[in-house]
Amino acid sequence: MPTQERVIRVLIIDDDEDDFFITTDYIRQIKQGNFKIEWCPIYQDALQRIEARQYDIYFVDYRLGAKTGLDLLKEAIALKCEEPIVLLTGKGNQKVDMEAMEEGAFDYLIKSELNTEKLERCIRYSLERAASVKALRANERRYRNVFEKSKDAIFITYRNLQFKDVNLATSELLGYGPEDLLQINLYDLIVGDGLRARIAGDLERDGEIIDLEIIIMDSHNESKICILSMSLQNAGNTDEHVQGIIHDITNLKKAEKIALQAEKLAAAGRLVRTLAHEVRNPLSNIQMSVEQLESMASKEDDKIFLEIINRNSKRINGLITELLNSSRPVEMTYKAVSIQNILDATLQLAFDRMTLKQIKAEVNYPDQECMINADIEKLKIAFLNILINATEAIFSDQGLISISLIAKSQFYIVEIRDNGCGIAPENLSKLFEPYFTSKRNGMGLGLASTLNILQSHQGIVDVKSQVDHGTTFIIAFPKANLVADRQ
Predict the structure, then answer these.
(1) Domains contained in the chain, number
(2) Whether residue 396 sits in one domain with residue 476
(3) Could you tell me the pLDDT band of residue 445, with boundaries at 50, 70 and 90?
(4) CB 299: neighbour CB atoms within 10 A?
(5) pTM above 0.70, yes or no
(6) Containing H/E element for 117?
(7) Which of 11, 75, 142, 384 allows an S-S link to 55, with CB 3.0 to 4.6 Å?
């Protein structure tokens, strides 16, 4: 029971003054209590006092003129009243009792059965229960706020991982509306039968999944790399459910990939510069010796051999120059240009090659000009390398290369797609590495140089490929004004 120091404010809402005095007298006889009791006979006045949160507990008579205590109870709950409301009635009525409790009354008392002991117990239980309910509601609001405002996807599912409740971040990550997600199973979004089987097994055995890296396919058929953690709650009970969190690490993985590619290019560059220095010194001696021997040679056969040596020495020197150029940071002259114009110019350069192989081109641009800061000639080289690779990957007589340009809020996305032979999964991660090539006579410098140019334009590159179905290069360029703001 509350201590003497605390004053418990009680409001009795009853249009019968005699009943107010009787109820008040019972309350004042409670020994361990310090009560401040007030009377309110008018319905609207009582509603205003409830809304003002002036009291700790309310005793409400069932009959209040034209309206009832149940009406007042419903309106008080609608006003988010958290203080306990006890309904009083002259005669017992089970229907009224049940309805009162369903609407949120803390107790239901019959006036003719009132006494000090009943009221003491009613007040004590009601205040204790109200304190517990307030604490629960405060926790619910706090966790609901975390749930709703979290940048990570937080969700609750049934035991079979059918979504039950999701926050806004889940909807944004997966690309479905909250209502649509309630019709979807998380298993259906996870890529890989083996991964789905592992999740089901771990959940069954351990009751939880901790920091599992997964790939999720969103509503736009775009794959996203995520970290999944979830746990089974109330196992075996009727309210058994799974709660979990999905953290999107797609951008982090892309950043790691870009950093790794840059590191590989830098390492290759250091190696090339070292080799070039070590090779060019003896090569220069060879070339000077050949020039000296050429002036002294009298036999025709000697001149032929010296020409062979000289020609191949120059070829080696040319290869060294090409290697050095592929490893150096590209010098750029930037200006605001239209991506559409650069792509059209690059297509013209590749037109003859595509025509000879009977490859069709499809172009899909937005209506507005897409402006980026770029070095036109360098970017044409990068696009041309991709188009040439696409052309060489197509062997069918129904070859198709499609170029799409998509405007996003901060980026322009260029997609170059072919229906060629595709790239084996084990080669996809090596695609931009210097000197890696699957071509018989290739040097493996074309795409390494392309990546160098695209990264110099702050481009983010991704490649998707499926063997025998084709390859798609996806390049995101920041808009011209955004690059200018950063610089």
Answers:
(1) 4
(2) yes
(3) low
(4) 8
(5) no
(6) helix 116-149
(7) 11
